[in-house]
Design goal:
By secondary structure, the chain is an alpha/beta fold. It is built from 14 helices and twelve strands. Helix 5 crosses helix 14 and helix 7 crosses helix 10.
Amino acid sequence: MSDRSGNNKKLIAVCDSDLSYAGRLVEYLRQEAAFPFEIRLYTSTETLLEDCDTREADLVVIAQSQYTPAVAQAGLKNLLMLNESDVLLEEPENISKFQSIANIVTHIRAKCAAEEEPVLPSLRHGRPMVRIGVYTPVTRCLQTTFSMTLGQILASRHRVLYMNFEAFSGLDKMLARNFRGSVSDLIYYNECAREKLAGQLEMMTEEAGGMHFLPPMKSFIELRSIKREQWSSLLRTIEKVTEYEYLIMDLTEHTDGLLDILRTCDRVYTIVRDDTFSRARCFQYEDLLRRMNYEDIRMRTQYWKLPVFREIPAGIEDLTRGELAVYIREQLMGGGSETA
């Protein structure tokens, strides 16, 4: 199916007269599972068949009690029945409705992935990708501006990918763009159709100031639903199937497994300030690293104390022209970094 702009629009239709059950399944697909499809709920066969979009839906998930002769004859291209009896049927494809929603969603993921056209992955030929993690417990300290400026500076000589882990990044509004999906799509492909991830990543990647970036999560609900193991697996896959030389991760506490991600970074940049509250937050953060046996993170952390800048470029695509960019270049060159 397509929207009015002609873009492909992925759809999963859920049909069940048990509104309590169907509502929980739909809510899980939309939020906990961060499913990269539009999810529509129908409480009757009539409303399901009245919607012309469902004829081309990527998947129709329907309760056995709603699987009527009219549904069977409707020509739905991909259907999964939730079996409400004790005996599984030969057709249509069916699974027990009375199992955990997480198991049902796993089956839905696999079924949707099986319908995708295969895309051959690329293989890495260059040197290992350098991971740079940017994180600070200090608030309102230009962390994202710093991360994106650094990325654009590096992008003048290298292939750079930026990932934003904020709860509400606002990047789509700031750039006045409609992003094609979000990182949750890549999580989905990495788990269910890894051979297709390279093509999806290439299709989704945006560019700003010469730096590539992935559309971030749309909300903190979506972000928090991704577990540390999923992040770890996705990052390994990105390194394997792309030729990016640098990955810059703009990290926050909303990220499950934050410390484990920082531990995998080749460099960690932490912005600090001299006021009482900022020093106290940094002390508490470093104390946490000690108590949780993550002191290796602190050992590879470079602390940045930024001066006061008179002006920061308003446009995201112009960050390399400001005072912050000059300062970053000077610090990188002063440290003898190859990235300068």
